[in-house]
Amino acid sequence: MQLGKLEKIDDLRKIWPHEALDFTPWLADEENLALLCDAVGIDMTVDETESSVGSFNVDILATETDTGRKIVIENQLEDTNHDHLGKTITYAAGKNANIVIWIVKWAREEHRLAVEWLNSHTDDDIGFFLLEIELWSINQSAPAVKFNVVERPNDWAKEIKKADCTMNETKKLKLEYWTAFNDYAFGNANYAKIFNKRKPSTDHWYTVSLGSSEYHMSFLMNTQKNILAVEFAISNNKELFRQLYEKKDGIEAAAGIKLDWRELPDRKMSRILHETKVDFSDKDKWNEQFAWIMEYSVKMAKAFKKYL
C-alpha cells in the first residue's frame, strides 16, 4: 500500500488573503462552522458577521443553540498580539457575551497565560477559548482545516465526569443516556453529516442546530412519564410557526408521521413534536431508542427544511 505524505501549509493567507473578506465568510458558512463546533464542543449558529461594537466590528457574533448564550469569535491569521487580546475583551463586554473564541495562527505563551488567567478569574458563566488553526494537505491535495484548542474554560471538558455523589440519580441517568447516544448516533458517518455532536449534559434535552438561531431541533427524555420525543422548536417567532402550520399537511406527508403542533401563545417558544413511549430504565433498549431518535430527527429535519 502506498501512503501519502502529510504536509502542513504554513502561509494561511494563501487560502484566505484577508481575514474579514475571506476567512470570516468562510468560517460563517454552516459546514465550516461545524468544524469549530466540534473542536470546542459547543453547538452554535451565526447571528451576524462584522457586528459593530462602537467603532469596532466583531468578526462573528453567534448564539449557543441550546442555551441562547452569546458568543463572540475573533479571527487572527497571525500570531497573537496585545491588540487582539484587548479586542476580544472589548467585544465580549460590548455584546454581553458569555463565550469568547479567539482563533489564531500561533498562540504566544504570554497570551496563552493571559487567557488561562481570564478563565481562572472570571465568573463560571464566562469562558474564553484560544485556538490555533492549521492547514494540511496530502500529496498536494485540497487543504484540510484543523483546529487545535490551546486554552479552554476551567473544567469545561469535565462536565461529563461530574456524576458523583452531588448528582442525583435522575441527572446521572440523563448524562449516561446522552453520552451513550453520542457514541451510537455519531458513530454513523451519514448522521454526523446532518447534525453536529454536542457535549452530553444532565439536561432532559439534547439540542442540535439546523443552521439558524430562530429554530432548532431537540431530543427530549421525560423520565417521569417515560416519553421520548423529537422536537422542532421555534424561538420567539409565532409568525414562522403559523406559516409552517399552514403547510402542516405537506410537512407531515414529507416526514411520514403525524406531529403535535403547539404554538404556546403565552410563551416565547413554539414546539412541534413526535413522541413515543419508552422505558429509560432498561439500558438494553437504549440503542433502539437512539435509532428511533435518528430516524425521526432526519425525517423531520428534511421535511421542515423544504418549507424554510
Structural account:
It is globular and about 55 Å long. The chain is 35% helix and 31% strand. It contains 9 helices and 12 strands. It has 2 domains: 6-154, Dna-directed Rna Polymerases I, Ii, And Iii 27 Kd Polypeptide, Chain: A, domain 1; 159-305, Yope Regulator, Chain: A, CATH 3.30.1460. A hairpin with a 4-residue loop joins β9 (215-222) and β10. Strands 1, 2, 3, 4, 5, 6 and 7 form a 7-stranded mixed β-sheet that branches. A 5-stranded antiparallel β-sheet has the order 8-9-10-12-11, with helices on one face.
Percent in helix: 25-40%
Count of discrete structural domains: 2
Mean pLDDT: 89
Class per helix and strand makeup: alpha+beta
- CATH architecture grouping of the largest domain: 3-Layer(aba) Sandwich
Roughly what fraction of the amino acids lie in strands? 25-35%
Please report the first level of CATH classification, the CATH class of the largest domain: Alpha Beta
| Overall shape | globular
Query: Topology as H/E string?
Result: EHHEEEHEHEEHHEEEHHEEH
CATH topology of the largest domain: Dna-directed Rna Polymerases I, Ii, And Iii 27 Kd Polypeptide, Chain: A, domain 1
Low-confidence stretches: 157-165
| Alpha carbon gyration radius | 21 Å
Biggest β-sheet strands, sense, barrel = 7 strands, mixed
State the separation between the terminal residues, measured CA to CA: 47 Å
Number of strands: 12
The number of helices is 9
